[in-house]
Every structure is written in structure tokens, then in C-alpha cells.
Amino acid sequence: MGRFFVGITGASGHAYAEALVRALVLAGNGVDLSITRAGALVIQHELGIDAGERGERLQASLSGWLGEEIAQEVRVFLPEEVGAPPSSGTALGSGAILCPCSMGTLGRVAAGFSSNLVERVADVALKEGRRLVLVPRETPLSQIHLENMARLAGMGAVILPAMPGFYHRPTSIEDLVAHVVGKILDRVGVEHAVSSRWSGLEEPPVEPGTTPPEED
Question: To 10 degrees, the CA torsion angle through 14, 53, 77, 193?
Fold first, then answer.
């Protein structure tokens, strides 16, 4: 259907990236994937994936990590491959998602400073007016963080912090991750059934012999 770029950085929250790549592929999309050097350290720590010092072992790890079916639809590019297809505005894509997005990466994107492929692809998305979703996972937020996010939002980027809700009554970490991934997919126009949708508040049960409360 489409081809999305997913950039993984050194922020915590790599479970979101894993679920996102799976969901994109299962929805019929291809994925171009790149991980920063800091991201390669964090994915080893959080998920036990050996991506190598600069992501050079990530392609070989895909089958064991995501499964062969998913891996076949994922192309991995090293962070220094600034000549890769996603780095050019003439190479059409369905959008770019930085997930999770560190505040360092977010700040460099806001300043137009591209030090690697992940930041370059985000820069291209902004200049071409394409979908760009940044998924920061940081708290608390400093004034610098907030100003950078506001600046990017003003440029047309979507700032989608990894803030799962609880109204869907999650019972596992996977439920919390799916809630955020579902919101990402909504913003890039991918149909999915990854997470449940709001259908309204349930009426509280009325005990026998009692009178329902009056409306305000």
C-alpha cells in the first residue's frame, strides 16, 4: 500500500517502535528503518536486540526480532547512509515517524540540523510537506523541549508523546503500547484494529431498590 520511514533514536520506549513496525507491515505497508547510534545502545538494553554499534547488525536481527514475514518488508539503512532513498525529496514516501524520538533528535530537527539519516528524513518530510510524526518519551519537559515541540508543530509536524490512556482499561503493557501505536497509525492514515476505540461511557449499574441519580 505505502512505504513509511521509521527512525529509532536513543529515547526509552523501543517497545513502541517494535509494535509500530509490526502494525505498519501487517497493514500492507513497507518500512524503511534506521536506528541512531544511541538507539542501538538502548534497543540492546530494553529489548535485547543486538543492532551493533551503529545499526550494522540490525538487518540480520530482524527475522529473530520481528519474524520472517515482517522482516521481508523492512529495509534497514545505517545512520550515516545519507544517500539512501528516503533522504531525498524526489523519493516519494508515505510519511516519516520518529519513534521513540529523543529530545536531542527533536531539537536538531527543529533547528534544521541533520547529523544522520533519521534527522535528514525528518527534514525532508518538513520541506516537502509530508507526514512527520515525532513520538517523544521524556518527562518532565523543560522549556527548551516545549519550545522545540511548539516550533515543529508550527511547521506541520505531529507531536505525539508516548502517553497511553487508561479509559480502555488496559490489562498489560502490550495494551498500553498498542494505545499509542494506534494513535500513530491514525495520524498517518493507516487503517487498523491495533487498539480499541472510544464508544462512550458505560452507564453505571443501578442497585435494585435505589433511584438513579438525577442528571446535572
Answer: -10
CB of 23 closer than 8 Å to CB of 114: no
CA distances in angstroms from 87 to 49, 142, 185, listed in the order given: 25, 30, 22
CA 98 to each of CA 20, 95, 172: distance values in angstroms, whole numbers, following the listed order: 11, 10, 24
Domains of the chain: 3-187 (3.40.50.1950)
pTM of the entire predicted model: 0.91
Which residue matches cell numbers 508515505? 94
Q: How far is CA 52 from CA 20, 70, 197, in A?
A: 21, 20, 38
Contacts of 165 (CB under 8 A, 6+ apart): 179
With CA atoms as reference, report the closest residue to 100 among 31, 161, 153, 189: 161
Residue 12: DSSP 8-state:
S
| pLDDT tens for each residue of 38-75 | 999 999 999 999 999 999 999 999 999 999 999 999 99
